[in-house]
C-alpha cells in the first residue's frame, strides 16, 4: 500500500516548537516580524519612523509623525489579553496541528488555563480561521452539495425537517485530475433559491461551472453569473457517484472529525466556526509544519474579536472598511432594541446615543454604536485601541 502523502508529511514537533517560541521574548519577536515584515508601520498614519518604549515587560511603539502609541497586540486578535503570548502560541500550535480539531476541554489541560479561558481562545482562533478563508472565492469547476450539521439523536424528525439541524453548502474546487484544491463549508438559512443565490454571489467567481446533484435551489447560482449543470443521483449510493466522490469523502471526514473531537456544541450558534476551522485545515493540509505561523498571520489580520461581536471589533471595521461595513453587521442582528438605562440618552438618526456624564458610551450590537462611530471616526483617526 502506498504511503499517504498527507498523513506522513513532516510536521512541527512540540520540542522544536518550544525551542523556537518557548519564551515571551521569542513570541514577541515572532509576532512583531509577522505583523510588520518590513518594519513598523503606524496603524494610524502609515508612518514608519518610531520610538520603542518598555511598558512593564511589553513594548510600546510611538509614531514620530502622529505621536500615536500602539502596543504589539493592539489591533490584533490578542488585543487587551492578560495571558502571556507563550500561552497563545501554544494554543495556536495545538489547534493547528490537530487533524480532527481540539475541544476546549482538551485545550484547557494542554495549556493550563481555566475552561472558560480555553473556550474563548479556541473560538477566537476558529473565528480567525473562518474569516481568513471567507476572503477567498472558488472558480473554475465547482462541485456543490447540500448537507446538514447536527440533528436530534432520538425522538425527533428524520431528514430535512429534523430539529437542531443547521443547513450548509459544501463546495469543492477540483484540479484537472479531480482531486480537491479548495473547499468551502458555508451555513445558509435554508435551501431556497434566494439563499443559494446570495451564497453564490459571495463564494463563487462569475463564470464558474457549478455541478450539483440536481436539487432545485442550486439552479439559482446562475443569478451570480455562473453556469449550472446537474447529475441526478436518484437511488444510487454515494460510492457509485464518481463525480461527487471527493465531496462525499470530505463530508464523511467532517462528521467523523466533529464527532470525535466535540461531543456536544451549539450547532445553530457556532456552526460557522466549526465548519470554517475544518475547511481552513483541509485547504492547508500539505503545509502542516507551516500551519502554526499561518494561523498566527490570520490572527493578526482578523483584528480584535470579543467573545461577542463587540465594540473593539466594530471600531476596527470602521477604521479599515468604513461605516458601511459596520452598518451591515449591526442591522443584521435579529434582536429588538430598546434604549439602555443610562444617566442620559437621546435619540439620533440611527438609534440612541448614550452618555455616562460627558463620555459617549459605545454599545456593541446596537444602533448607538453606529452613531458614535460616524461621529468620531475620521480617515486619519485610529479607533482600534492603540
Automatic annotation (TrEMBL):
<protein>
    <submittedName>
        <fullName>Transposase</fullName>
    </submittedName>
</protein>
<feature type="domain" description="ISXO2-like transposase">
    <location>
        <begin position="137"/>
        <end position="283"/>
    </location>
</feature>
<dbReference type="Pfam" id="PF12760">
    <property type="entry name" value="Zn_ribbon_IS1595"/>
</dbReference>
<dbReference type="InterPro" id="IPR024442">
    <property type="entry name" value="Transposase_Zn_ribbon"/>
</dbReference>
<dbReference type="Pfam" id="PF12762">
    <property type="entry name" value="DDE_Tnp_IS1595"/>
</dbReference>
<dbReference type="InterPro" id="IPR024445">
    <property type="entry name" value="Tnp_ISXO2-like"/>
</dbReference>
Amino acid at each position: 500500500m502506498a504511503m499517504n502523502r498527507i498523513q506522513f508529511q513532516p510536521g512541527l514537533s512540540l520540542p522544536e516548537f518550544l525551542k523556537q517560541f518557548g519564551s515571551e521574548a521569542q513570541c514577541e519577536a515572532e509576532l512583531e516580524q509577522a505583523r510588520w515584515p518590513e518594519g513598523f508601520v503606524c496603524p494610524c498614519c502609515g508612518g514608519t519612523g518610531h520610538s520603542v518604549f518598555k511598558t512593564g515587560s511589553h513594548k510600546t511603539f510611538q509614531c514620530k509623525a502622529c505621536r500615536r502609541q500602539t502596543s504589539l497586540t493592539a489591533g490584533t486578535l490578542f488585543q487587551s489579553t492578560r495571558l502571556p503570548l507563550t500561552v497563545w502560541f501554544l494554543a495556536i500550535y495545538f489547534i493547528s496541528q490537530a487533524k480532527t480539531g481540539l475541544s476546549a476541554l482538551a485545550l484547557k489541560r494542554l495549556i493550563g488555563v481555566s475552561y472558560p479561558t480555553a473556550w474563548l481562545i479556541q473560538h477566537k482562533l476558529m473565528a480567525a480561521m473562518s474569516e481568513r478563508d471567507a476572503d477567498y472565492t472558488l472558480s473554475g469547476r465547482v462541485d456543490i452539495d447540500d448537507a446538514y450539521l447536527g440533528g436530534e439523536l432520538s425522538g425527533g424528525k428524520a431528514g430535512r425537517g429534523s430539529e437542531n439541524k443547521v443547513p450548509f453548502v459544501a463546495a469543492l474546487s477540483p484540479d484537472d485530475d479531480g482531486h480537491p484544491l479548495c473547499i468551502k463549508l458555508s451555513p445558509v438559512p435554508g435551501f431556497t433559491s434566494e439563499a443559494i443565490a446570495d451564497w453564490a454571489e459571495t463564494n463563487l467567481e462569475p463564470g464558474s461551472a457549478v455541478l450539483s446533484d440536481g436539487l432545485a435551489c442550486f439552479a439559482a447560482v446562475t443569478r451570480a453569473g455562473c453556469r449550472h449543470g446537474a447529475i441526478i443521483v436518484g437511488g444510487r449510493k454515494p460510492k457509485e457517484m464518481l463525480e461527487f466522490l471527493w465531496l462525499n469523502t470530505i463530508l464523511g471526514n467532517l462528521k467523523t472529525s466533529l464527532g470525535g473531537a466535540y461531543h456536544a456544541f451549539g450547532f445553530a450558534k457556532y456552526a460557522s466556526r466549526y465548519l470554517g476551522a475544518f475547511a481552513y485545515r483541509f485547504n492547508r493540509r500539505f503545509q502542516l509544519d507551516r500551519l502554526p505561523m499561518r494561523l498566527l498571520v490570520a490572527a493578526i489580520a482578523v483584528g480584535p474579536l470579543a467573545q461577542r461581536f463587540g465594540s473593539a471589533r466594530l471600531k476596527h471595521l470602521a477604521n479599515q472598511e468604513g461605516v458601511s461595513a459596520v452598518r451591515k453587521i449591526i442591522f443584521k442582528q435579529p434582536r429588538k432594541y430598546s434604549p439602555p438605562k443610562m444617566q442620559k440618552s437621546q435619540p439620533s438618526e440611527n438609534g440612541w446615543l448614550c452618555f455616562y456624564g460627558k463620555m459617549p458610551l459605545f454599545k456593541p450590537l446596537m444602533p448607538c454604536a453606529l452613531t458614535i462611530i460616524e461621529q468620531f471616526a475620521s480617515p486619519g483617526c485610529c479607533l482600534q485601541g492603540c
